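ZP: hey, is the zinc ion complex queued? I don't see it on the tracker
AM: it wasn't, my bad. submitting now with these inputs:
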Amino acid sequence: MTLRRIGAPLVLERHPLPEPGAAEVLIRVHVCGICRTDLHVIDGELPDQPLPIVPGHEIVGEVAARGAGARWAVGTRVGVPWLGHACGTCEDCRAGRENLCERARFTGYQIDGGFAQYVIADARFCFRLPEGIDDRHAAPLLCAGLIGYRTLKMAGDARRLGIYGFGAAAHIVAQVARAQGREVYAFTRRGDLAAQRFALELGAVWAGDSEQPPPAPLDAALIFAPVGALVPLALRAVRKAGVVVCGGIHMSDIPAFPYALLWGERVLRSVANLTRRDAEEFLDLAPRIPVRTQVEAWPLEAANEALQRLREGRLTGAAILTMED
Ligand SMILES: [Zn+2]
Ligand SMILES: [Zn+2]
């Protein structure tokens, strides 16, 4: 399913089977998750979007062929995340911040991704997936889970944790946060009772509308919805020295707000991409909690319909595309 033109529906196409380069693997895709970032790609909201491109960066599949120098034996089940390549030599890479590498390349944005039956990936940026989590339920771990986990880490040891936007990332992060003994406060679009109920089922101690103040000041807030207006609301909801972390790759403009909201050593920061270390940590942690993802499955050729559902907020949990049949 290829993006040929910004804003246009994806097109079902037949491409020749690609050959892996020396450090690459050819993966037969079983399942690919759909992430909000796929909408940002399709809408041209990320800089310098190359076209055509096959979106999809929550890839679960098995190695079908490999280049001469590539790790992973044929038949290994692997996952491919958003970070598709980093240079390994720049200042950021050497400092353990490959997520900020200027030469990084991203799956489904600059490298053809997993809305396809086969995909080529740099073997060094693929991961073995935990046993005991099937393909469908593993797919959302690869972005919603990984970047959600990195976002949660930026909240430090916050006990009272607010989550704004209760979609795919939040439904995973809430389970991790709860297992770590934190209290989760879920904020949704006004009147989205289905999402609020879902949050409470996942163990949130409170759920309400984003405009509502929480019953007690928060130690930290994570924002997963791409809505800049949530930033001042979240700053208002956190206590002194509280942290507000923006977990998305794109956000609408943040409205001006009084300095008093930031005063008191409150911190506002973003999270960009992921490192392989985040992936290793989270994929080790997820089965031990255990994180259970809730998925809605669509066949590959229905990608446009599934994307539309995500756009309208008419999904509970995470959408995935399946290539089985
Ligand atoms: Zn993503
Ligand atoms: Zn680098």
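AM: back. The pocket of zinc ion (ligand 2) is lined by residues 86-87, 90, 92-93, 98, 101, 103 (CB under 6 Å).
ZP: great, adding it to the tracker
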